[in-house]
Design a protein that fits this description.
single chain, 66 residues
């Protein structure tokens, strides 16, 4: 539930900004990844708001796996 809610927020946020295609692909890869460290590494290239969302998504993914 936590993960799907954050994904929805993320998609809304996603639609507000127009980004380069490569940036979007990185972002989607980040969302799909189950690696917390990889998410943090990739999110370093994002806007701070995006970094926060990726961080939250990562935490939710980790909680779901436990």
């Amino acid at each position: 539930m936590c993960l799907s809610l954050l994904k929805r927020i993320f998609l809304i946020h996603f639609s507000i900004y127009t980004w380069k295609q490569s940036h979007r692909l990185l972002l989607l890869e980040c969302l799909m990844s189950r690696s917390y460290l990889l998410n943090l590494h990739i999110s370093n290239h994002f806007h701070p708001i995006d970094q926060h969302l990726v961080h939250c998504l990562s935490l939710c993914t980790i909680q779901k796996m436990i």
